[in-house]
Amino acid sequence: MKKRKLGFWEIWNMSFGFLGIQFGFALQNANTSRIFETLGAQVDELAVYWLAAPLTGLIVQPIVGYFSDRTWHKTLGRRRPYFLVGAILASIALCLMPNSPILWMAIGVLWIMDASINITMEPFRAFVGDNLPDRQRTLGFAMQSFFIGIGGFVGSSLPYVFSHWFNISSTAAKGVIPDTVKYSFYFGAIAFFLAVLWTVVKSKEYTPEEFEAFEKANQLKQNDSESQKEVTTKKQSTIGIVMLLIGLLMTMGIVYYSLKKDLYILSLGIAIVGFLFVMASSLRKLNKNNGFVDIMTDLLRMPTTMKQLAPVQFFSWFAMFSMWIYATSGVTSHIYGTSDTTSSLYNEGADWVGFLMGIKFLVAALVAFLIPILAKVTNRKVAHLICLSCGGLGLISFYFISNPDYLLVSMIGIGIAWASILSVPYALLTSALPLSKMGYYMGVFNFFIVIPQIVAASLLGFMLNNFFNNEPIYALIVGGISMILSGLLTLAVTDKPTIQIDE
Asked: Are 190 and 155 within 8 A, CB to CB?
């Protein structure tokens, strides 16, 4: 039994929700540091305050993926219940975020908002794997990239648009979020809910019986069996003990040398994951299998292609997070020459950064369907290398620019990289995943988005404080180098010929 080929508008409808999801992420990425600084956060504290988002994703994504693989609602189907619930919660959080009166409330709302967005977003990636045959998946991910680009462009540009087109004030008293930011979040909340609702209403899903038939038809595929190699309890326990010891030794080193407290997040995170592996191994020995055991065991049963893509994802997303965290403070201090959040010059620079973020998304939308053509002329790995090199050079160029208008050129390069980051790795991965665990492994694949943010939050503040005299522009240079390295690592990935790039 084979999945039917879907028409263009069917793929359009099933991807449309990403337009709203990206409104949420774009507003979050472009304005969170601005909100934190307005509420009193120091530049070297921004990274650790951002940790609410990745820590939430690290927990939520595999759990949502695991349960969405096992869900069936007679009206909403398999993935769509999560789309709808996440959209409602995220829209509420978007309205609350710019009304946070104190810093710690903003951090807490960021936590809720990111969890809600992840509840919606994570099953969307699996949705493509569920509904499309292999030969159409690249088109499906390209369509998602298109909507991500459009939603990101509009969402990121909203404060600038409200300020310059509607003459709404972009400044406010000390400790108060400007009206341009507030209205942008309100607009984004409405757009998020309506776009996701469109996909929920206009899309269909295969029944469990049909899906079981697809699974049987594919059970002899090499890629499926590859991901199901057995992991012994001894191996799982050994890995857990090693991680636990490494995490504890790192923590002791941080204490002994009085290093920045941000690093505890990284060291204790490694120790906790190690402990969870040991715990899962012990439960398996007692034949007490449950969702927790499945999640922790399948982490060690990832397909080879997924393991090869891990460092590619790590360094490319590390670069993106360095930009999202430090672009506003880097541009305002290095190019506009101010760190005073109450000044009109600072807020002009912050609005311009938001607009630049929008340009990145617009470029991504425009080139999304050109990447498969580039990959066909070269191959997907070389195409990804070229795109990421454009992005890396764009980030590094921030340091050398004195006229903020020229940052538009930098953002073109970053937009090209962004389009590739959102499509090529997923196209390389999809056919290596077992159908019955598509949602779970898509959630796990997002670990390699979340982990670099945790590392970025732990290390970048430390690096700025100890090596770069707290000048955030240097974080963008580090990000640019990281992105180019990611492109080079792509050349080591095995590209399965069964995945079609030119559908």
From this structure: no
Q: Which residue has the higher pLDDT, 222 or 147?
A: 147
Condensed to tens digits (0 to 9), the pLDDT of residues 81-101 reads: 999 999 999 999 999 999 998
pLDDT band at 503 (very low <50, low <70, confident <90, very high): very low
309: pLDDT strictly greater than 50: yes
Tell the residue number behind the tokens 């990611």, with chain if given: 486
Q: What are the φ/ψ torsions at residue 491 (nearest 5 degrees)?
A: -65, -20
State residue 460 phi and psi, 5-degree precision: -65, -40
Q: How do the domains of the chain map onto residue ranges?
A: 8-226+302-490, 233-297
Could you give the CA distance from residue 47 to residue 42 in angstroms, rounded to a whole number?
10
Q: Looking at the structure, give the CATH architecture of the domain made up of residues 8-226+302-490.
A: Up-down Bundle (1.20)
Global confidence as pTM? 0.76
Burial of 77 (0-12, 13-18, 19+ CB in 10 A): buried
Yes or no: say if 475 and 325 are a contact pair by the CB < 8 Å rule. Answer: yes
DSSP state, residue 437? G
Among 120, 136, 168, 126, residue whose Cα is nearest residue 18: 120
Report the 10 Å Cβ neighbour count for 387.
Answer: 29
